[in-house]
Amino acid sequence: MERIRKYLPYLLLIxxxxxxxxxxxxxxxxxxxxxxRVVFLDVGQGDAIxxxxxxxxxxxxxGGPDATLLGRLSKVMPFADRSIDMIVATHPDLDxxxxxxxxxxxxxxxxxxxxGAVGTSKESINLEEKIVKKKINKIIAxxxxxxxxxxxxxxxxxxxxxxxxxxxxxxxxxxxxxKLVYGENSFMxxxxxxxxxxxxxxxxxxxxxxxxxxxxxxxxxxxxxxxxLWLKKVTPEVAIISVDKGNKYGHPHKELLERLSSLHIPxxxxxxxxNIVFESDGRKLIYTK
Length: 289
Fold this sequence. Notes:
CATH class of the largest domain: Alpha Beta
Order of helices and strands: HEEEHEHHEHEEEEEHHEHEHEHEE
CATH architecture of the largest domain: 4-Layer Sandwich
Largest sheet: 8 strands, mixed
CATH topology of the largest domain: Metallo-beta-lactamase, Chain A
Strand content: 15-25%
Strand order of the largest sheet: 6-5-4-3-2-1-14-15
Structural class: alpha/beta
Number of domains: 2
CATH superfamily of the largest domain: Ribonuclease Z/Hydroxyacylglutathione hydrolase-like
C-alpha cells in the first residue's frame, strides 16, 4: 500500500498524458464524410466562398474585403487546420482579395488561381508580393481548365471564363466564372461578372453546361449582372447574394430582385442570414444554414 501511495502521483500523471493525447487525436483526426460542403461566408460587402470536398481538399473562392475573412473561416474549417489547397481570386478588386494577404500570413496555401489581370491597389500589390515571397504556385485561369477536388467522387471545378486575355477588360468583366460539380448537384460561381461577361459565356457554352442548382449572383446583386437570359439558362433552384446590410451601393438592386421574382427564383442573402451553408452527397442538395 505504501508503494502505491509513493507512485500514485506518477501514475496519475501518465494517465493524464495518455488521456490528453487521446483527446487531441480525436480532435485532429480527419473526419470522413460523403458530403461536399459549400459555405458562402458572411464577409460584409464582398465575396468569399469556402469549399471542402469529402476527401478534405479545400478551395476558397475570393477573400472578402478585409480581416473579417479569418474570423469566418475559423468557424467553418476543421479545428487546428491552418492550410488551404487552393484559393481563387476571381479579380483583383478589394472586396474580393482584401482578406487574402492576412490569410497568407496565417495559413499555408498550396496554389492561387487568378484571372491574369494586374491589380493596382496597395492590397493587390501586397498580395502579389506575398505570393512571390511564400513561393505559392500561381495559375492563370483559362476556359477549359478542369480542377479536380476529389478524384474518387469526381468532384471538380470547371473554368468557363476567362476565354481570352482580360488585361484590357474592365475589372468586373474580367472575373473568373466557374462551375463546381458533384454528381447531380452544381454551383455556378460568378465573381463580379457583368452582363457582357455573361453574354460571352452564353455564346461559348451549351445550356446543359450552364444549368446549375445554385447560382451566386454576380456583383452582389447589381443590376449590371444576372440578365434575364442568363437566369433562364442557369435555371437555379436558388440564387445567392453576398452583400452587406445597408451598403452604400444599394445592393441588391430593385431591378435584379424583379428579374428573380419574374422567373420565380428564390434567393438567400448573407446580409439577412449570415453564413449560407450547403451540403451535397452528389444526389441531394441540403441547405443547412
